[in-house]
Amino acid sequence: MGRYRPPQPASSQYITPEGKQRLVEEVDKLWKKRRPEVTKALAAAAAEGDRSENAEYIYRKKELREIDARVRYLRKRLDGIVVVDRVPDDQHKVYFGAWVRLEDSSGKQSVFRIVGPDEFDPSLCYISMDSPMGKALIGKSLDDEFTLRLPEGEAEYVITEVSYEKIE
C-alpha cells in the first residue's frame, strides 16, 4: 500500500469579521514579532560553530520553516475568503453565523455557532459549517428534527432556538 492520500476537499471560504480579524492578527504576530525573534536566535546559534551537530541551530531552522509555512498558508487563505458581515433575511433558519440550541433525544441541550472552517473552536462552542453537524444544521428551521450519524451510532436532535445574537 502506497502513501498516496487523495487531497482533502476544499473547505468553505466563508468567515465572520471576528474570524478574519483573528487571522490577520496571527499573521502580524508571526511575521512582525515571532519571526524576527527566531531569526535572531538562529543567527546566534549559527555563530556558535559547527551547524551539523548544533541542536539549537537545527531547532531554530525548523521553527523558522514552520512560521514561514503558516504565514504563507494564512496569507493565501486570507486572499480567498469571503467575510459574511450581515444577518440573513430569514432569521428563523440556520445559516452561516447562526447560534443554534439543540436538544437530543435524552433531553440534553447544546448550543453551537456555525462558523467557517478557519475559526471553529470547541471551547467557544463554534463548529465549522463543513463539519457533519454544521452540514446537518444549515438550512434547517426552528423545531426541525434531524438525525446525525455519530461513531457510536445515530443521534436525533431537534432545533429549539435559532438566533443571530449569542445564546446564553
Question: Which structural traits does this protein have?
Answer:
168 residues; alpha/beta; Helix Hairpins; Chitinase A, domain 3; 2 domains; two-stranded parallel ribbon; 3 helices; 37% helix
CATH architecture of the largest domain: Orthogonal Bundle
By CATH, the topology of the largest domain is Helix Hairpins
Strand-residue proportion? 15-25%
Q: Just give the CATH class of the largest domain.
A: Mainly Alpha
**What is the count of helical runs?**
3
Mean of all residue-level pLDDT scores: 91
Layout: helices, strands, pairs:
Layout: E1 14-15, H1 17-46, H2 55-80, E2 82-83, E3 99-104, E4 109-115, E5 126-128, H3 132-137, E6 145-150, E7 153-163
Parallel strand pairs: 1-2, 4-5
Antiparallel strand pairs: 3-4, 3-7, 6-7
Describe this structure in words.
- With 168 residues, the protein is of the alpha/beta class.
- It folds into 2 domains: 70 residues, Transcription elongation factor, GreA/GreB, N-terminal domain (Helix Hairpins, Orthogonal Bundle); 65 residues, Transcription elongation factor, GreA/GreB, C-terminal domain (Chitinase A, domain 3, Roll).
- The chain is built from 3 helices and 7 strands; from the N terminus they run βααββββαββ.
- The strands form 2 sheets. A 5-stranded mixed β-sheet has the order 5-4-3-7-6. Strands 1-2 form a two-stranded parallel ribbon.
- β6 and β7 form a beta hairpin.
- α1 packs antiparallel against α2.
- The longest helix is centred in the first third of the chain and has 30 residues.
- It is elongated, with a radius of gyration of 22 Å.
